[in-house]
Amino acid sequence: MITIDDVRDAQTFLHGKIHRTPLFSTHVIGGMTRPRTQLWLKAENLQKTGSFKPRGVLYKVSRLTPEERERGVMTVSAGNTAQTLAWAAALEGLPCTVVVPAAAPRAKTDAAAAYGAEVIRHGANHVEAWEMGHKLIAERGLTLVHPYDDEMVIAGHGTIGLEILEDRPDVQAILVPIGGGAISTGVALAVKAQRPDVRVIGVEPALATKMSQALAAGHPVEIPPSTTIADGLRASHVGEINLALAQHYLDAVVQVSDDAIADAVSLVLQRAKLMVEPSGAATVGALLEGVVALPENAVTVAVLSGGNADPAKLCEILTRSEAHGS
Predict the structure, then answer these.
(1) pTM of whole model > 0.85?
(2) What's the pLDDT tens digit per position in 105-146?
(3) Considering 51, 305, 321, 326, which one is annotated as catalytic?
(4) Same domain? 116 vs 168
(5) Residue 305 falls in the annotated catalytic set
(6) What is the C-alpha separation between 81 and 184, in angstroms, rounded?
(7) Is 233 left (phi over 0), alpha (psi -120 to 50) or beta?
(8) Residue 122 structural domain
(9) Tens digit of pLDDT for each residue in 255-269?
(10) Active site annotation includes 53
(11) pLDDT tens across 76-103, in order?
C-alpha cells in the first residue's frame, strides 16, 4: 500500500509542472451551511485542464517504463481523465486513446481530441465503455492508465491534502468528492499521516453510492448505471486499492442529493465567482444539505474537484436554481 512518502515524492515531481491551486474563503456560503462553518474552497477547478486530474495522471505517466510508453497510453473516463491523459501524453509525445460513454460531456471530449487523443465514444454507461477499453488493450497492446485504481494516481491526487495542510494548518475538516475513490483516499492518506485529528469526509451522490456499499460489504460493489447530475462521479464501482485506503483513512462517507449539488453549483458561481461542474460542487452541496456532522464554525475545506461544466447543462442548472430561489 502507498504511504505518505509516495505522496511527497509526487509533490516534488509535480512542483512547477502544475498549478498550486488557491484556497478561497467564503464567509457567505459558510454562513449558509448546516451547521455553519468557516468555509474554504480548494479551487481545483483552476488546475490545468480544469480539474484535479493532472496531479495523479502526470505522476503516473512519469513512472511508466520505456516499453509501456512506446505502446501508447489509454484510459476509460467520463471526460476529465480523458482530457488530462490526452494533455499529459501530448507533453510527453505519446500516442493516446480514450474511451468515453456516448453521453460524456462534449466540452471534455472535445478537449481530449484537441490535445491529439483518439476519442472513442462507446456505450450507454461506464460499464459498456470499459468493455470497449479492455478490448482495445487486448487488440492493440495499449498501456492502461487507470483513472482511480492505481497507487501512483492516488499518490498524485494526495498532494491536494499536503497543500491544504500547508496553507490552512488550522483546518478541522476536509470534504472530498468520491467517484472511483482516488482523490478522496489520496487526500485522506496525506492528511491522516500528518494530522490524524483532521476529519476527512468523502462525499458521493445519493444516486451513486458505490463507496458506501463497498465499505458495508467489505469489497467493491458494482452499482447500476447512475443518472446523477455529477457525471464525473458516476463510476460503477470503487477500486480495490481505493477501498483499502478508505477503510483505513476516511472518517466518514456521506451522500448528497442532486438538488443540493445543483444548488451548490449556482451558489458557488454567484457568491464565490467560481464556475464548478456538478462533480466539483458535491462537497459544498453536502454542507448545504446538512448531511455532514461537524462542530459549529469548524474550519472546513471543501475540495472543488473540477470546472469542466457542459454549457447546456450549466444553463439548465442555473435556470432551475433561479426558479427555486437559490
Answers:
(1) yes
(2) 888 899 999 999 999 999 988 889 999 999 999 999 999 999
(3) 305
(4) no
(5) yes
(6) 16
(7) alpha
(8) 54-144
(9) 999 999 999 999 999
(10) yes
(11) 987 899 999 999 999 999 999 999 999 8
